[in-house]
Amino acid sequence: MSHESTAAPAPMFSLTLTGIGKTYVDPVLSDVSISISAGQILALTGENGAGKSTLSKIVCGLEQATTGHMLLDGQAYQPASRSAAEHLGIRMVMQELNLIPTLSIAENLYLNQLPQRFGWIDRPRLAQAARAQMAAVGLTDIDPWTPVGELGVGHQQMVEIARNLIGSCRLLVLDEPTAMLTDREVELLFTQIARLQAEGVAIIYISHRLEELKRVADRIAVLRDGLLVCDNAIGGYSSDALVQLMVGRAAEAEIDLGHRNFGAPLLRVRGIGRGDVVRPTSFDLRAGEILGVAGLIGSGRTELLRLIFGADRADHGEIFIGDQTQPTVIHSPKAAIAAGIAMITEDRKGQGLLLTQSIGLNTTLAKLPAVSRFGVLDEPAESAVADDYIERLRIRSRNSTQIVGELSGGNQQKVVIARWLYRDCPIMLFDEPTRGIDIGAKFDIYKLLAELARQGKGLVIVSSDLRELMLICDRIAVMSAGSLVDTFERGQWSQEAILAAAFSGYVNNKQEQTS
């Protein structure tokens, strides 16, 4: 068994798609023709629902095209499954992760090729191979026997990338690979991409982050409403021009937060913590305020929100709602919701949605009595609510009865947001609210967040995108190694100062360990 990161590809590689179309109930792809060869990096972009993920799934054997054909090295190519495509060196890191949470990192990496000795799994060999593969993507400080379910989504993303770099890889499809990564992890990924390109691996890089596409790609392909509207050298396009191609209109350069008067604190957190994951943390959230939380992956950002929301049990600390003099006991999400706290989770697939249910049900789930009569669901009322949010959030769908699992990732995220907007809680916790959402729709979300703040709600927003936080927040708190290390007011921050704070906790910990 070989544990090399990536075997050298065959000298010749070319993949040609001709007239590819895909129809479910309605067409989602129409007459797409495109090609890629060894060592090329093709950027693939477009709005949510434009057909990017569907096209890549056809290439990687997860979907079958309705029309058209493909050629691999000049021969007919129609993989019947993902494993069939992988056997030919075509691999995909999907936006929705394909990991088993109850198994360790090592077991997830080598699940189909576990080393054995005398009929038993050779754990020392497996651990050695896993550590080498994890080091390739910067996961050197994590025990390979850690269950994947205990990792944050960002670290899970790096494990998924590492898994797909094992063995022969001739074409690697990366679907929104940096959506949950911070700058340090992004740089590690780009190092791997440069190495793969030098070895002749072809790469399809799907992202809404135009600055990333221009940095890594040779060519840009843009899909809009299932049609290929651009396939050209990327150097000839400005970001504004690409946005025009993607959405048919220019994106705004900034957001008008409007005039707001901050009110009294809606939420007072005092000394809340859980082991070393979140050390004692205190802050206030005022009415009408947007408070950002920055930090590296693993810094405790998500874990802090989960403690406040009651998804994890705090070891110590208190939470006060409004002007209450007695702390509110929050030992479950149900208690948090009753106290007026909502949370938009970073893991929409695992924690945020009922994927087999309709948009309507998912939208009204947190406030079902409002669309029920005598304990029976009022379907017309449910549809009316969902239709309103479909229009407001520009959710690409057939109608409110469509199953959420059929939507693109970004549109699924909008459904999660719609649910909590409908619940109308005064305190709203957002964990990566624009993950997987295209650049045009991001500004729709930003405007919505600003409107919520103008209504007097208090918003806490965790994001891996510093520019996003600097664009929409009134204050930015920085987590590092489990501690809230600094808070910056609007007008007083800089990207360099926030990043320095984000690394400070780890530097201090290392100095303490060596002293």
Automatic annotation (TrEMBL):
Pfam families the UniProt entry points to: ABC_tran (PF00005)
Domain ABC transporter: 10-250, 257-506
Residue stretches in coiled coil: none
Keyword tags: ATP-binding, Cell membrane, Membrane, Nucleotide-binding, Repeat, Sugar transport, Translocase, Transport
Protein name: Sugar ABC transporter ATP-binding protein
Organism from which the protein derives: Paraherbaspirillum soli
InterPro entries in alphabetical order: AAA+_ATPase (IPR003593), ABC_carbohydrate_import_ATPase (IPR050107), ABC_transporter-like_ATP-bd (IPR003439), ABC_transporter-like_CS (IPR017871), P-loop_NTPase (IPR027417)
Domain of life: Bacteria
Molecular function as annotated in GO: ATP binding
